[in-house]
Write a structure and sequence with these properties.
By secondary structure, the chain is mainly alpha-helical. Helices cover 79% and strands 0% of the residues. It is built from 17 helices and no strands.
Amino acid sequence: MDTTKIPGRVYGAILATGLMSFCGVIVETAMNITFPTLMREFNITTSTVQWMTTIYMLVVASIVPLSAFLKRRFKTRSLFLCANLLFIAGLLLDLLAPIFPIMLLGRLVQGLGTGIALPLMFNIILEQVPASKIGVMMGIGTLITAIAPAIGPTFGGLVVTNMSWRYIFVFLLPLMVLSFILGVTCIQQKAPTEHVPADPLSIILIIVAFVGLIYGSSNIASASFISWPVLVPLIIGACALVLFGRRQLRVHSPIIDIRVLANARFSGHVLAFFLIQMTTLGMSFILPNYVQLVNGQTALTAGLLVLPGAALGALCAPFSGRILDRFGARIPIVTGGILATIALFIYVGLGKYISDLLITLVYVLYMLGIGISFGNIMTNALQQLDVQHQTTGNAILNTIQQFAGALGTALTSTVIASGQAGRSSAIGTAFGAHHAFFMLALIYACALLTILLITRKTKNAD
């Protein structure tokens, strides 16, 4: 018997959970394009419509840290069905919403489904795929989730331009139904469940921690750092996180076994993963705004200009996973890190005014580097842990990914806003974007240095 062959049901289970994650990401990126339309239709302000993203992000960030506990306590198929049905319910609420509060409720319900779904796919890969195929299958998993932000803005722009924004939810419903059918028929339970006692205090602390940290980070761009919308949530979140960490070391069955962070190789990968996610989300904020405010293009054109790079980065993920399986992690991780760092410093060197063509070409180089390295950093991070701790590692990586995205976007928008102060929109955005490119280049250079250090002697680096 060929022990390296992946059963068809495993492919189906990965596709089922991947489609859920895909829909969760694409609805977020597509809806960002609709904000001006929603403001007019529901007669709401910019600060109000932003809650479409904020409430979703807060709910996802609250649920994802619980994934390791949920996996131990409940069957994988039960978790999948719960996530799938919640997401479908959220889509229907938003599709039919007569008023904006109903839309927010729909986003909240979608966030519950996405928070449960996001870690499922990678848990199935780690648990059911042969070790020799882990890299390529993690790459395919990364492809499924990475292609969504690549096409989301373009998809949203096309829908809003040619039909009602409600069709965004209409088009996603068949994908969720297909996901449901695949999940029911293909997801199998491999590891036995345990009757793990829930620790209510730990659950409350982790929710308060990440809601506080993400909400405070999200407000950095719109309020002073020492104002209550920023500083108070950050302090509360940080205190709750410290208390959560201390409690996990004392309870018999921790929600997240933070002892895995004592593994220097794993924690080094986590740091690099965090910094790269910050940079990539910051880039996804800069470029569309630059194209529209400095170069005077439409939102649809801005989406089309970043599409080639984003699509290339997503498509590279499975191939870079194959490289990891054959040659180890160091080659793709370091090569990708160097390419992405070069691209960021090219943006800095181009100055304050960059043509649409150069924006697209350099972004292709950047996303090529991300596609080669990012998924493999996650894969190699988890391979530094024992099998029984990989679910915990997956929960940690998915959790910090949410926080890194919020922080990267907030810092980038703050730097751009500082450049806009006292200048016209176009000139100010050009100045602010140049400073933001420099900041992100330095952050990624720190990530590259971390990568060089952690891949010297890791288990799969050679």
